Amino acid sequence: MNRSDFAPLGFGVGLRRPHYIYILDEQPLMDWFEVISENFMVEGGRPLEVLEGVRSQYPIVMHGVSLSIGSTDPLNIGYLRQLATIARRFEPAWISDHLCWTSVGGRNLHDLLPLPYTEETVRHVAARIRQVQDILERTILIENVSSYMEFSSSRLSEWEFLSAVAEKADCGILLDINNIFVSAFNHRFDPVCYIDSVPPGRVVQFHLAGHSDHGTYLLDTHDHPIRPEVWTLYEHAVRRFGRVPTLIEWDDNIPEFEVLAAAADEARRRCESVLSREGPGAVECT
Amino acid sequence: MNLPELQTLLYQLITTPEGAKRIGNERRPAPGRIETLVRGDQRLSAIERVNIYADAYFYRLLDCLYEEFPATFAVVGSDNFAALVRDYLLACPPTEPSIFYAGRYLDSFLRNHPLAKRWPFISELARLERAILDVFHAADTSTLSDEAMRAIPSEQWPAIKFETHPAVEILRNEWRVADVLCAVESGRGWSQPAHQKTAVLVWRQDAQVNYRDLEDMETRALALLSEGASFAAICEAIAALATGSDQVPLIGRLLARWLGDGIIVRADAMLTTSPITSRI
After folding, report:
1. Which residues of chain A lie closer than 8 angstroms to B58, CB-CB?
2. Is B52 in contact with A46 (Cβ distance < 8 A)?
3. Tell me: the pLDDT tens digits for A10-64?
4. In angstroms, rounded to a whole number, what is the distance separating the alpha carbons of residues B44 and B39?
5. What are phi and psi of A61, to 5 degrees?
6. In chain B, where are the structural domains located?
7. CB contact under 8 A, B10 and A148
8. How far is CA A69 from CA A66, A127, A132, B112, B274, in A?
9. What is the ipTM score, two decimals?
10. Quick one: which H or E segment has residue A112?
11. Closest partner residue to A111 among B7, B36, B53, by Cβ?
12. Left (φ > 0), alpha (ψ -120 to 50) or beta: where does A253 sit?
């Protein structure tokens, strides 16, 4: 995998239903949109019509939530065929999903559950990612998830696990800065250390989002503005990884489109500011 | 504990009503008690950590089903609806990658649920709400336009055969549940629907889903149309059911409405070269 194989898309936002009409009618300035793959894995109707319209004006990326790459169930070939079909139709710049499991025994939790961080799990997940890449005939990205539990059987840190899986599967990484911050609080690790340990050559995209503070833990709710601490962490990530396509996620209590667009502009401003001051790679890679 | 066992156990903990707390306290799973599998700390115990996922599972699906069945929710109320969803998820846990399919059995589940004793129409109401979702996402295909129909030589009309658009469903009900849905959608208070056999047509036009009650005659005609009957056979059926001498204008009005609503998608083979319009 070569990071330069992926288009330098710039700064985008998630395509969400409340903004469909505005985007189609007004065609606002936006570098690109990320769509939830499963929302468009339908036979027909309005969702596909909307995506046709958006795709005709903007680059898109497909981001899945149900690949269940860490499950011990067999890969869902029907799901992958559907994914391949819409990918052929809409030609996303890339396809991503999460480093987690969402289903077992043929039943789906519709949530992103963490895995035990062991060498055995690295081998299991990496082999499945390779299978998926063969079926989709493209390199995919895997995203670090927010988590609320860790397993006693884990022998690797989360960043060691993420890096090992990406190396072994030869896939890209979608680095969610907010997820790192949330998990760092929940499991008491240093988020800067996490970022400094991820191989720069594999990071193809960033996610930024808001979260909720529940006192004893942070919850990745995507329903708030991005917190200042996450912006600071983002700037640190830009120092290490350089100009990486960045996406603002907002999935609940969704505000006006302009609010999301302003967050994308803020990411652009901070990225340019960091790079003009310090240039990429200012942080020592470990 | 290997990975399949761990995932199976977590699935059980997360999907059990009341979450991991109940299993954790009442029948701690051997060989791994939760505390030996999941790291807890002073801020959150292992059980509390698993319960974050258990809560998320239930409330995510509750929100999803609330959005998909707003009239069912309005009738039974929030407490009953939450209890219904809890029962439903135990009986019909999600199996598809897309959460869109999570509620597809709710109407059939409701048929034998205690809530159906108090609200005997509730299963039919949920079925109507589900049909609206299914029609919204149904396949696209070209439809026969009024102009294309008129272009067919009149001597060919008796032999014409139609099909309904994939985004068309006809529901046969014992209760007039469309009245309840209409009342909820318009923000009016709903009232007990009439206990009266009725058919409801659900269809999509310009990406919007519509529904309306059907008269017996139109129900019969659409049933024949779906079965592949010729236009002549459909006309005969309408004529047999119609009273008075207005049969021809009646047939014309029905056909015009079907064409206008875009519920007819294809005539028989001899029409395949006729102009058609593309619509979703």
Report:
1. none
2. no
3. 999 999 999 999 999 999 999 999 999 999 999 999 999 999 999 999 999 999 9
4. 9
5. -125, 140
6. 69-279
7. no
8. 8, 10, 9, 37, 48
9. 0.94
10. strand A107-113
11. B53
12. left
- Separation CA A61–CA A57 (nearest Å): 13
> Which residues face B169 on adjacent strands?
B202
B183-209, pLDDT tens digit by residue?
999 999 999 999 999 999 999 998 899
> Between A48, A101, A110, which is nearest B7 by CB?
A101
Contact A44 B1 (CB under 8 A): no
- For A108-164, write each residue's pLDDT tens digit: 999 999 999 999 999 999 999 999 999 999 999 999 999 999 999 999 999 999 999
CATH number belonging to domain B69-279: 3.90.930.50
Phi-psi map region of A10: left, alpha, beta (phi>0 left; psi -120 to 50 alpha): left
Q: How far is B16 from chain A (nearest CA, A)?
A: 12
Bridge-based pairing of strands A218-219 and B168-173 is unpaired
The H or E element that residue B198 is part of is strand B198-205
Please, which residues 57-86 of chain B have a Cβ atom closer than 8 Å to chain A?
Answer: 57, 60-61
CB contact under 8 A, A104 and B96: no
In A, which residues are within 8 Å of B39 by CB distance? 149-152
Mean pLDDT computed over every residue of chain A = 96
Distance of CA B225 to the CA centre of its chain: 22
Question: Position B57: which residue type?
Answer: Y
Count of A-B CB contacts under 8 Å: 128
Taking the CA of residue B1 and the nearest CA in chain A, the distance in Å comes to 9
CATH of domain A3-277: 3.20.20.150
